[in-house]
Amino acid sequence: MQQPRSSAQQQHEPPYTRVAHQLHLAITRHRLAPVLLFIGSSDQTDTTSIQLAQGLHCTHTSRQCLALGCQQCDNCQRIAKQLHPNVYKVCAAENSSATASTRVGIDQIRRMKQQQNLHSFAPGPQIWLVPYAHNLTLQAASALLKLLEEPHAQRFILLATPNEALLPNTVVSRCHKLFFSYNSNQPPCNSDMAQQISKLLAKIHNTPRLQRWPMAQQFPTHRDELGEWLQQMLQLQWHTTKKLCHQQPNSTALQRSMLATQALQQTYDDLHQHNANSKLAVEDLLLRSWP
Q1: Using an 8 Å Cβ cutoff, are 53 and 20 in contact?
Q2: 48 near 19, Cβ under 8 Å?
Q3: Among 11, 90, 108, 157, which is least packed, fewest CB within 10 Å?
Q4: pLDDT in tens, 172-226
Q5: pTM for this prediction
Q6: Distance between CA atoms of 62 and 4, rounded to whole angstroms?
Q7: Which SS3 state, helix, strand or coil, does residue 160 take?
């Protein structure tokens, strides 16, 4: 059982965002992918990369989210100052101050491989941050690909880019993607697809589990399109959960909404990380996972 968080810790704790929630769920299930690709603006992806590294090394156990550090312990502060021996930043510049126009060459990836082969005397996983993955040269991307093909339980590579199309498909295909395509603090978009999905979500919530079977036909069958739908559903469901956290913090509705968010995240992970069959993934979501 977690101890109550002090007011000082709550004050320093970073915002509990949608992506942090997704990472938290993966950590609690021991299913955090060894290679993550953060897709979004550099301020979002850089911050989340640092926070995840802090979360994986944080020594405070009474945290709301395991993907966020407390910002106060020695590990969190050393990571923030780029002084932790197990957290590396892969940049072209020797001073680790990469910019959006800085190219990352094969020498940096070779140094990364050498670091992986070294034994760390500090506890916790080894983490590599690649903030401008789209600036990899072709040689560097090829060298990185070999590292991605050799996952390790205590080694994590966090890539970041504003657009996955800027990276080779061979690299993207070996990553678990997390999108920062919208501001989770703002209401979901009002597109036709969003309205259609919103109606479907309401229908699922109000329909008994054993009667949801026909709804599977309303989901896309193509893997990529289904992935986009699940992302949109996560956005809408996460927005609902955040509202309930403020308005009905101890309600059954909040518990159901959190379980629904977890079910959607689990389906998305199964689809992209474990190559699950699209049709079976949707049926499992509706008939078993959804509360």
Answers
A1: no
A2: yes
A3: 11
A4: 989 998 887 544 444 455 567 778 888 899 999 999 988 998 999 999 888 878 8
A5: 0.60
A6: 7
A7: strand
Q: How many residues does the chain have?
A: 291
Tell the residue number behind the tokens 């923030």, with chain if given.
80
CB contact set of 252 (below 8 Å; sequence gap of 6+): none
Q: Which tokens hold the place of 82? A: 């780029």
Q: What are phi and psi of 102, to 5 degrees?
A: -80, 130
Instruction: Using alpha carbons, select from 158, 165, 163 the residue that is nearest to residue 127.
Output: 158
Structure tokens at 146: 């070999």
How crowded is the C-beta side of 193, counted as CA atoms within 13 Å? 12
Q: Tens digit of pLDDT for each residue in 98-134?
A: 444 467 888 888 888 888 777 667 788 999 999 888 8
Q: Under 8 Å CB-to-CB from 54, ≥6 apart: which residues?
A: 68, 69, 70, 71, 75, 76, 79, 80
**What tokens were used for 58?**
């944080």
Amino acid at 213: W
β pairing state of 35-39 and 155-161:
parallel
